[in-house]
Fold these 2 entries.
Entry 1:
Amino acid sequence: MTGIVFRIAWKNLMRHRGKSLVIGSILFTGTLIMTVGNAVISGLDAGLAQNFRQRMTGDIVVVSTAQLKDNVFFTPMGEPVESIDHLDEVVKIVTQHPGVRHALPVAKGMVTVLNEDSEPYFQMLFGVNFDDYRATFPDGMTIVEGQFPSGDAHGIVMSTQSREELHKFANLWSVPVGSEIVTKNLPAGVTPDSIVRRDQMVYMGYSDRNTSLDILAPVLAIGKYAAFNGLWGFFSLIDIDSYNQCMGYFESEPAQDIDRHNQQLLAQTDNLDAVLFGDAPTTAPVTPSIETVATAAATSGYNLILVRLKPSHTIESTIHQLDAKFKSKDLPARAISWKAALGQVAQIALLMRAVLFGFVMIVFIVAIIVITNTLSLAAMERITEIGMMRAIGARRSIISKLFITETGILSIVFGGAGIVTGTILTLILQLLHIKADNNFVELFFGGTTFNPVLSLSDIGLGIIQLVIVTIVAVIYPILIARKISPMDAISRE
């Protein structure tokens, strides 16, 4: 019986080629759009995961319980983020979790760039240990000038975005210490003679503390983030000791931390005036190091811990486990997801994903409606044919199988062609390496390059969507066809 139904269905499709092509074209177009749409959504998710989670924020961000807002990276007006108390204990709990691969303490804050020839300019900084940062995000930043510093270096790794913004505001152009201006890296129309070269920056801390200071930070390197440089590039890296000193996170100096020059003076004379005013014999002056000025720097400057997880552990379960551990140890810390920490930036990306998904669903629904209407009209036009089949003994179930088989053949042929074409088109889009030209498009792409990803699960999703379209679209036409009786055929004649 199945073979007979298939032969009848095939003959019907050939006899009604026009309507078959209409339905087939709709199935082809719908599956093509759904396949490419699913690939774009997957590419967006993969791009955000690779660029934000693996290169910038980590999977989880640990903050203080005193920090009421989850948005800790792009805070309104540079609003300070609460410091994490008992940092050593918090870090110990995080690093001991079996799912944690890396845990990077970060001090995030805003500073004022002081310059005698312009108004103060605000800049965002991440205070880090350079070695730990490199270990956590090995491909997060590419150095375009200078060299990435080692862990004991003092100074700043300025992002290209921060440098360009500073140039627009104050006509300053930052270069690494001892380096000259690289002409090819200058903005269009700018020459070395038209700008002011700077290899050191004067920063004044901008925080809720009353002990912030001005510091002179040498520029160690100029770097560019691997993705979202126009957005994430507003953050430059500075060593944590310089950050703590600038923000005022240090304690009073104990006597044993007097610099070497003054120790020599004290050893050579009992005359305090000589020590203060230079009357005693002296050696060559020694510039106090940051360790001397900011002795016993308090770790309270840290306000974020960026956590990268092993692939075998999920973000949600790890957050619950870390929070439970913090609570059991009575530590003032809590864990949030990278999306929550990004605030509106992640919301914009999620909104784009929702828009893409909504577009795919609209195509899905439109395909169902159009195919349903076309099949319903076909059923009405075939009243005589179906009535005669009923008259010679064909049951309603045979009529239902006939419509399902006809629509199924069209779905397999045209829908399958749509999936194959969508897969090929996705591969072509990958090879084109379409570049994002602004921050909004970069969020839409999930990175600097448009890279839709079509996995086996996406192809499976496309097949499921095609099956659903076929089944839902054929229900109403079947109901119409099942109601046709031999008397309807006679009355039509």
Entry 2:
Amino acid sequence: MLHYASLQVALSPMPAFEVNPSGRIARFSLFELDFAAGELRKNGAKLRLQEQPFQVLALLLDCAGQVVTREELRQKLWPADTFVDFDHSLNTAVNKLREALGDSASSPRYIETLARRGYRFIAPVQKVGTGAFARSGEQSEASAPHTLPEVLHPELEVPIPRRSLTRGLFALIQLMYLIFYAVALFRIHGVQAIADSFLPRWGATALAATVMVTAGVGIPLRCYLLSAVGFD
């Protein structure tokens, strides 16, 4: 029995799953997995995720970039004395996990399926914590308490900007359009005069009408988008 256990460990292509979960956090894209609290969060908001999909995600993040075989998942999540349809249960758990992450099997951003072998987490992962979960060379929160973690886009591999920055830029764009529409309506006679200088009468009238309709539709639309940004 001892010889068999030693051989099994020697042939294992991945690190063991049994690590201390205290204080561990994994961040990828817009998501954050808190091992100690047992929570998956997106932009700080907690997502509903059942126990089995959560455990599958935890194991995949433990071995990010490596193949986790279906047999390894079975040994960890479904002990030998558990009577369950393993294939169906694992497929259901992975599907629910993909649904929570907004991922797909055909074009995966996070979880890649390897036919008849297992799964691999392919997005860049930032791991924070101590013990076996922390990679060598990573900067801990204690050593840099004021440094915000850099989260990379799963496809473009560029840093994702802060949400407040993107909201602010989006609001400025809507405000710019709103000003354009208001000025166009205020100077509609000038628009008509300029159009008359190089267009026939009916063309100038059609252009002025187009400007008025566009502004009439665009002003409430931009106001709605500004209110959406304001109320998050």
